[in-house]
Amino acid sequence: MKARRLLVVGDSLAGGFPHLCFPSLLASLEPTWEITVSARGGDTLLGAGNRLAGLLAGDRPEVVLLEAGANDLLLPHLERRGGSWKMLARKLVSRGSIPANHPEAFRSLLERITRTALRGSRLVVLATIPCLGEDLRSPLNRRREEYNHVIAETAGGTGAGLADLAEPYERELHGLENPSPYLLGRFSDAFLDPLRSLTPRAAFQLSGRRGLVLTIDGVHPNPRGARLMADTVAAVLRRTT
User: Is residue 212 part of a domain?
Assistant: First the structure.
């Protein structure tokens, strides 16, 4: 039987070690799918969309999963932090990871990317943004909800599928009495955390030291968070293909 082909295009939530990477876990859940991943840390919707257009020019997967949007919100947040974080944000923007700073700008861009992708594949699935810090009451997470609403509306309006990665995260995090405020701590942690998370046990220990449940730093999933994402995508594939 010929394997069905899934192309995952996203940011660092779609990349990383197998135990921190939902496409790798998805491959074990759905072995009949041939999964190709194009993940780029720090990428915004614009950057991911530009890469997707190039990938579809030479290939025609059955399903495209577009996972993007977190950095459209995080890059402006990091620039406001100042210092090295501001320098990193500006470096990412200079390479083409330009954030859509308003929900309606995000909507317009997402609609265009989705309609283009639908011409190059049988099905496009849009993924919502899981969390930006595990305190769902934070202003950044409230803004994330606006963008997720746009993602869901765009999926409905274009005929795309929806992988609501935010839903299982929110279901677990809403039950926390005292959610950790940790969100991308020291600048050096961005480079050290991958080395601190080489095994599932080490990743869980790092989460625990920071009071986190589903992520290692408020954004990037620990093995539990990655499994929730993989389970959500797997359910969409079973339901729609």
Answer: no
- Helix, strand, coil percentages (3-state) for the chain, rounded to 5, are 55, 10, 35
Structural domain including 32 reads 4-177+223-240
Q: Where are the alpha helices (DSSP H) in 65-179?
A: 70-81, 83-94, 103-118, 139-158, 166-173
Residue for token pair 């921190």: 20
Asked if residues 8 and 43 have their Cβ atoms less than 8 Å apart, the reply is no
Distance between CA atoms of residues 46 and 88, nearest Å? 17
Q: Where are the alpha helices (DSSP H) in 126-221?
A: 139-158, 166-173, 189-196, 200-209
Series of mean pLDDT values for 10-residue runs along the chain (241 residues): 86 93 96 95 96 87 96 97 96 96 97 94 96 97 98 97 98 93 95 95 98 97 98 95 76
CATH code, domain with 13? 3.40.50.1110
Give the integer Cα–Cα distance in Å for 106 and 134.
23
The neighbouring-strand residues paired with 129 are none
Residue 216 located in a structural domain: no
- Does the residue 215 lie in any domain? no
- Dist. CA 29–CA 231, nearest whole Å: 8
Total domain count, the chain: 1
CA proximity to 181, closest of 173, 169, 189: 173
- d(CA 154, CA 158) in angstroms, rounded, equals 6
Report the relative pairing of strands 33-39 and 63-67 from DSSP bridges.
unpaired
